[in-house]
Write a structure and sequence with these properties.
The chain is of the alpha/beta class and 219 residues long. It has a single domain, classed as Class I glutamine amidotransferase (GATase) domain (Rossmann fold), CATH 3.40.50.880. Helices cover 26% and strands 21% of the residues. The chain has helices at 16-24, 72-87, 97-105, 117-120, 141-146, 198-201, 209-217; strands spanning 4-9, 28-33, 46-48, 92-95, 110-111, 132-136, 150-153, 160-161, 169-173, 180-184, 191-194. Strands 2-1-3-4-11-10-9-6-7 form a 9-stranded mixed beta sheet, with helices on both faces. A two-stranded antiparallel sheet has the order 5-8. The longest helix is centred in the middle third of the chain and has 16 residues, at 72-87. The two termini are 13 Å apart. The structure holds manganese (II) ion. Manganese (II) ion binds at residues 120, 132, 155, 157, 174, 179, 181, 195-196.
Length: 219
């Protein structure tokens, strides 16, 4: 039996690319809509997906006009799942909003609307097309996964990590404007989060599959 990964979503129309990426590396996605009381339970990994903005109140800020209306239930449910994953030292892969929530949950903050937003919100019909480069930090877990110093990534985020959460390490950033593009938590076996959407890139760039392959291998 393949290992099960909990994939949490708010909009069912958004979840299929994540599910297919997990399936493509031989693991079984367990798709669960956000609901209070949701637990990782019998799954042995957590995938946090993209979506609306994290409530700025969680990092002590007033919402800017560009920030999405808050979804306190989703923020709280996913924060509890992060705690469960870390307590059990389960592999956690955060994508886009997932990365932002992970950072906020451990005391970090976000840029609510990037000054270079045009560079990071690229909505193309093919969601797998790259938008900008990221530089990968030598010696990081991500470097050992990617086996390269640069990656061409897609991009559709208007927010990003501002103050980094304690214990985390920036493992990729945009070389042009310095935007944080990936973070990891060295104290755990596999806690990695990226700002781009590898679930859309796996078909165009087989090397992005290594993110899901190493995640599945850690289950
Ligand atoms: Mn970006």
């Amino acid at each position: 039996m393949s290992e099960r990964v909990l994939v949490v979503y708010r909009e069912s129309s958004d979840v299929q690319p994540y599910a297919r990426a997990i399936e493509s590396v031989g693991a079984e996605p367990v798709l669960e809509e956000v609901r209070t009381g949701l637990r990782i339970g019998p799954c042995c990994g957590l995938l946090l997906t993209g979506g609306g903005d994290v409530d700025p109140a969680l990092y002590g800020e007033i919402a800017s006009p560009e920030t999405d209306p808050p979804d306190p239930e989703r923020d709280a449910v996913e924060a509890a799942l992060i705690d469960e994953a870390l307590a059990r030292d389960l592999p956690l892969l955060g994508i886009c909003r997932g990365m932002q929530l992970l950072n906020v949950h451990f005391g970090g903050s976000l840029v609510q609307h990037l000054p270079t937003v045009g560079r990071h919100v690229r909505r193309t019909s093919d969601r797998g097309l790259p938008a900008h480069r990221v530089v990968i930090e030598p010696g990081s877990m991500l470097a050992s996964i990617a086996h390269r110093q640069m990656w061409e990534v897609n991009s559709r985020h208007h927010q990003a990590v501002a103050r980094l959460a304690g214990g985390f390490k920036v493992c990729a950033s945009d070389p042009e404007d310095g935007t944080v593009e990936a973070i990891e938590l060295p104290a755990r076996r596999y806690v990695l989060a990226v700002q781009w959407h590898p679930e859309n890139q796996v078909s165009n760039d087989p090397e992005q599959r290594t993110l899901f392959q190493t995640f599945a291998a850690a289950l």
